[in-house]
Amino acid sequence: MAPSLNRRAAAVAVVAALAVSATACGSEKDDAKSAAEGGKHTVTTAMGKVEVFDTPKRVVVLDTDALDSALTLGVKPVGAVTAEAGAPMSTYLPEDKLKGIKPVGLIMEPNLEAIDGLNPDLIISSKARDEKSYKELSKIAPTVFTETTGPDWRKNFELHADVLGKKEEAKKVVADYDKHVTEVTEALGGVDKAAKTEVGFVRFIEGADIRLYMNDTFVGSILKDLKVGRPANVDKTGFSLDISPELISEGDSDVIFYSTYGDPAKAKETGVTGGKLWKNLDAVKNNKTFKVDDSLWMLGIGYTGAGQILDEMKKNLS
Question: Are strands 199-205 and 255-261 parallel, antiparallel or unpaired?
């Protein structure tokens, strides 16, 4: 009789423990989902209208522009993707602001299980990056997509600020950037002098052609903000003019900023910059070529990244 009672008591204890555990797990998730304050509102996104919390508390970002926006506005995400396996989330954002953010996969390859495990109340990305995962992401939390990144970064920032509950703070960020642009333009000698200085951007890429960046890019947009001159072959609508090393003369301008993605030798940077064609460029002859951090200039898509790029341009152009 006693053993039977003991078994029954043990069974009851196990059931009770499981019930408590399930309740705890459920409450944790419910607490995380209800952590946002101030009700909800609807925003228009690249995927249609989405209802979001007014003040989300557990944000996951799936691209570098969303990470820049969040940290610029004083919001630390609970999760973020990286550009490559083993790579840091950012090389230009302050380490103390990145500390504690959990990795949730790679750009264009988000780890849905890891994201769900963070119990987010908002997910931010773009249609260009994660359209294929939108349905699954939307089941986890309200998911806000911009159309793409790059040239529309200012417009994207406005949406990011709205869904992060930071619209007022965003106004100051934009005003500070505009002031920064004016200061750098003045340091270049004013609008007229800046317009007479042609500035190009060359990117060496492992496994691809050399790219000369046009206006519909993050870098191109900053150059246009400064109202500097642009070489005629890239001063147009479009992403990039892709060339072979033999056509590097197409990248000539008064000033050349350049970066490298991947191994410099495999990306052709080593061979090109050590060759005769490169050395014959006007910018090279006049000592006006500047190698810059590819991670910042290509992935620093946002007001914090743009501010650091403006500082580099001021240093090298004035």
Answer: parallel
Residue-level pLDDT at 233: 97
Residue span of the structural domain in which 141 resides: 37-165
In a domain, 11, yes or no: no
Last-in-domain residue among 149, 165, 181: 165
> 107-155: per-residue pLDDT in tens?
999 999 999 999 999 999 999 999 999 999 999 999 999 999 999 999 9
Residue 69: name the closest of 149, 138, 182, 180 by CA. 149
**Alpha-carbon distance 80 to 243, whole Å?**
34
CA dist., res. 290 & res. 256, Å (int):
6
Domain count, the chain: 2
Q: Return the exposure string of 130-150: e unless at least 16 CB atoms fall within 10 Å of the residue's CB, then b.
A: beebbeebeebbbbbbbebbb
Q: Are residues 150 and 203 in the same domain?
A: no
Domain co-membership, 180 together with 61: no
Structure tokens at 133: 């995962």
Rounded Cα–Cα distance for residues 110 and 85 (Å) = 12
What is the strand order of the sheet 122-126 is part of? 109-110, 102-106, 79-82, 59-61, 122-126, 143-146
Q: What beta strand segments (E) does 65-132 contain?
A: 79-82, 102-106, 109-110, 122-126
- Each residue of 161-197: pLDDT tens digit? 999 999 999 999 999 999 999 999 999 999 999 999 9
Distance of CA 78 to CAs 18, 94, 105, 117, Å?
A: 28, 16, 13, 11
Where residue 273 sits, what CATH number does that domain have? Answer: 3.40.50.1980
Same structural domain, 185 and 270: yes
157 and 191, same domain (yes or no):
no
Report yes or no: 170 and 201 within 8 Å, Cβ to Cβ. Answer: no
Residue 235 phi, psi (nearest 5): -85, 65
